[in-house]
Write a structure and sequence with these properties.
alpha/beta, binds NADP nicotinamide-adenine-dinucleotide phosphate
């Protein structure tokens, strides 16, 4: 009897915790997007796919920028069906290849007259190298998006008011950027263990915030604004490359403590749609509100240095 009372108590507490703390706030913007075009990178699954569905429901023309043709085309059918919109297009983009980023941008600029919102959502949690020899998490999570944004910036300016939304993570809190190491090794730090993977992931997510900080400065005087964000802890496929044991442990914790992809897309939607946040350009958001961050994530010198080294790496 005592055990049953304890179990019931535990589940009630878990439910209350989930409803009040885990679920988080929702985007309250009623903005409609008819006639507007949005790109969402990594939108064949997880937060990106849900974000694409929500934006298509609001009338946007949504470009699913995904690396796998097969997964991208399957997602295209799902996004069309779930949003009830036909204004959804798949275009191939592999952020682990600067050539692919350039050919995506060329194709997009040739075929699509507008760009109103660019959502740099794709992310990877895996040690490896990109096709150009950069660390995989640096290359995909930061460098590919850096190049993509720069190649699309003129179109965003022409279509202003427009926005760039960079999906970062609270994992940036344990990140650092060692520029000497980056310069020599084209990666964020050495290591191949499980712990190293999470540390390098944190470094790459710090890059997302520094990039947004510098981008906002460079966009002053234009009608383009930009934001970085933490979506919360979300049940997605992000852990898919970890060992079975790690996945088993994490999945069981996640069931209680993590948000659904729909809940996890709310801060992205807030940054993309909320009216009146333009004066917060360059800031970091979490739970649908601007948040204060550590000095290392709003360091002017580091942001400028990251911008310059990224330009050099991309050859722009
Ligand atoms: N889930 C969380 O708890 C959490 C927390 C904080 C921040 N985030 C951030 O949220 C974003 C979305 O992650 P998620 O949780 O939705 O993960 P996910 O389910 O694993 O989705 C990641 C997406 O990125 C794509 N991607 C990976 N490598 C790519 C590449 N080389 N080129 C193009 N696309 C690529 C994936 O495509 P494939 O399916 O083809 O691999 C997939 O569509 C990421 O930036 C992540 O860092 C997530």
């Amino acid at each position: 009897m005592y055990t049953i009372v304890l179990l019931v108590g535990f589940f009630i507490a878990a439910y209350i915790f989930h409803e009040t703390t885990v679920k988080g706030k929702s985007c309250t913007s009623k903005a409609k997007l008819h006639g507007k075009t949005v790109i969402v990178t990594g939108s064949n699954t997880g937060i990106g796919k849900t974000t694409a569905i929500e934006l298509a429901k609001r009338g946007a023309r949504v470009i699913l920028a995904c690396r796998s043709k097969q997964r991208g085309e399957a997602a295209l059918q799902d996004v069309k069906r779930e949003s009830g919109s036909n204004q959804v297009v798949f275009m191939q983009l592999d952020l682990a290849s600067l050539k692919s980023v350039r050919s995506f941008a060329e194709n997009f600029l040739k075929t699509e007259p507008r760009l109103d919102i660019l959502i740099n959502n794709a992310g990877v949690l895996l040690i490896g190298r990109t096709k150009d020899g950069f660390g995989l998490m640096f290359g995909v999570n930061h460098l590919g998006h850096f190049l993509l944004t720069n190649l699309l910036l003129d179109r965003l300016k022409e279509c202003g008011p427009s926005r760039v939304v960079n999906v970062s993570s609270a994992a940036h809190n344990w990140g650092t950027v060692d520029f000497d190491y980056l310069n020599t090794h084209r990666d964020l730090r050495v290591g191949t263990t499980w712990l190293d993977t999470f540390r390098i992931y944190g470094d790459s997510k710090l890059c997302n915030i520094l990039f947004t900080h510098e981008l906002a400065k460079r966009l002053k005087g234009t009608k383009v604004t930009c934001y970085s964000l933490h979506p919360g802890s979300i049940l997605t496929e992000l852990q898919r490359n970890q060992s079975t044991t790690v996945q088993l442990i994490l999945k069981n914790i996640e069931r209680f403590l993590f948000k659904t992809p729909l809940q996890g897309s709310q801060t992205t939607l807030h940054c993309a749609l909320q009216e009146g946040i333009e004066h917060l350009s360059g800031r970091y958001f979490s739970n649908c509100a601007a948040k204060n961050i550590f000095a290392k994530a709003r360091d002017d010198a580091a942001s400028k240095k990251l911008w310059e080294i990224s330009e050099r790496f991309c050859g722009i």
